[in-house]
Amino acid sequence: MKSIKWFMKEGLLVKDNSFKLIYNKFLEKARNNLITMNLLAEMDKNKQTKDILKLPKDYNADEWIVITGYYSMYSSALALLAKIGFKSKNHTATILVLEEFFIKKNLLNQEDLILLKNASLKKEELRELSEARQKREIAQYSITKQTTREIAEKISKDAKNFVNKCEEILIKINKK
Prior knowledge:
Elements: H1 4-9, E1 13-15, H2 23-45, H3 47-52, H4 62-83, E2 86-88, H5 91-104, H6 110-116, H7 123-141, H8 149-175
Antiparallel strand pairs: 1-2
Helix pairs in contact: 2-4, 2-8, 4-5, 4-7, 4-8, 5-7, 7-8
């Protein structure tokens, strides 16, 4: 398994304290992705909207609901990384840093430990992000209909919960 050091050596993960100042931009992006996800879900359910947009009767937005749901989760994860001074260019690196800094908390300096006390992700929430990534990849790259309404609805729910949890963590960090 690749380590944080490996991703840093490869330039896929960078320690950059200037990112602490723009974490909120990633959170805004996450919220915008949630809006897009909700719009797609509403459009997909509404026959009248489909007619107005002249979409085929069998048009199904489920794969894009999964994709935008995942990217809302990923953008909020990038907000957490930015807040502790990391820039990630790799999905696996992002998940690894979240696990190390927000779950295990083994690599934090004293200042970061104080900031992140009582503001950690639970393993199940990180697993939701990882599962969403896998489902996003299936939805995006597969030509079969493995992406079902049920998967889209689960990702939609998980995305909202994950983004809210990341926002709660960022609020707690800012209060310190």
